[in-house]
Specification:
The protein is α/β, with parallel strands linked by helices and about 525 residues long. The protein has 3 domains: about 210 residues, Rossmann fold; about 190 residues, Rossmann fold, CATH 3.40.50.10490; about 40 residues. Helices cover about 45% and strands about 10% of the residues. A 6-stranded mixed sheet has the order 1-2-11-10-8-9, with helices on both faces. Helix 14 links the parallel strand 8 and strand 9. The radius of gyration is 25 Å and the shape is globular. The mean pLDDT is about 95.
Amino acid sequence: MTLANTPPHWSALTASAARIEATPSATLLGDDERNKDLRHTLAGCHFDFSRQRVDGQILRELLELTRVTDLAGKRDAMLAGEKINASEGREVLHTALRDGAPNAPALMREQVEQTRSRLYACAEAIRGGSWRGYSNRAIKDVVHIGIGGSHLGPELLVKALAHLPQSQVAPNIHFVANVDAQDISHALDGLNPETTLFIVVSKSFGTLETQVNAASARSWFLERTGRTDAIAQHFIGVTTNLQAAAEFGFAAENLFPLWDWVGGRFSLWSAVGLPILLQIGAQAFSQLLAGAQTADEHFASAEAAQNIPILAALLATWNTTALGCNSLAVLSYDQRLALLPDFLQQLEMESNGKSVDTNGQQLDYRTMQILWGGCGTNGQHAYHQLLHQGTSRFAADLIMVANDPWERQEHHQWLLANGIAQGQALAIGHRPTDPGEQHKYVGGQHPSTTVVLDELGPHQLGCLLAICEHKVFCQGVLWNINSFDQWGVELGKKLALPIFAQLEGQDSSAQDPATRRLIEYLSINRS
């Protein structure tokens, strides 16, 4: 295999990529020393990289990339609060939200601690029933309004950790993100405004979808109560735009900050995570932060060869740039993690879906894979057929949980058996010896990582998600891209503004022919 269109510092890996093509995964897995180097455990999370398509020499060559790209120096710069998000002139310090950046500015750490104390008190008041609505009734339902990073992390964790034992009754939590009216209509159906609290999350308080949904929620509330003076008791805001929030009707004491140095997709550890805190309580939320902090400390101090996020990034980058794996399947063998692929789609693809390097030059090599996935064992009866016998190149992450809190041993043992077997089939495949059974041929040779959590607890999940965050950063360094801006997202928002007005009748003649024709068609056929 010839490595075309790769970064200059990847040239030493050309021969290795060609060599590994002819090396069966079974041969790689026969090397005990290699396997040992590719298995690591942290905070109740076991990472098994042994089914990746690398040998000892490739591992050494990949580790050399960390020196060439000064990954350690750039990591230290991020954790110290340097403005590594150059295109926006911002620090990248989401680790400070969980005390994982001890060298961050003291004022910043003080602000985090103060906000966290307020957040815990707020959650305790809601969970304990002392937060009362305008009619002096306790809150039973919470509607969280956000989108992207202000929505995907909280919803994932609320659902993943709903099984935890509760010392208090958690409110029912509903999530609204899509600007499609059906989303908010479904969330509000059957709710009582007297016992409903809204959380509106928007860093700028200008995100279109969140603005529209928040305005609809406000109208819904006022239509049923007629009490503008009660808005403050039923709406909490998380934003940097305090003026716009005040104009909406939020009380100052019910506003929580979301700082510029926290990217939305890295924000679940902040006040954005209030729904998580409401679901699991302060003690479990602190364990979530502690698990993430453990990952931060490991990332900051472990040598590259034992550093889990660095290894994960090196292997994922190798799969993408060298082996041509254009997609990454995230296969969660636990129904509670059904939303994990959705969360990782934004975290990884919004971060590293880039075609320009940090110097503003167009890239001529692959960066981020298309990330997708779902739950096992359902997927085995759907898209796994393509994974096993299709012709596309891909990599996979399989996520399993060792212990089942419901003690349904037969169910759980079958779930684990299937998860392990799928990884085996992806690596080893099946080669029939009977010429009449070649339709059963399964090529294998697909790289995969298996992650096993001892249990699905807040400490383990905090560690896992922080590892994923650090992996994203490391891949950005290896590809020489900025993982912390998202100008492609901004373009779509900008283009929608004039189209909205043109759908209302404004002149669309300046639009390109395809866009203009769609506007005309919809204008004629909308009732």
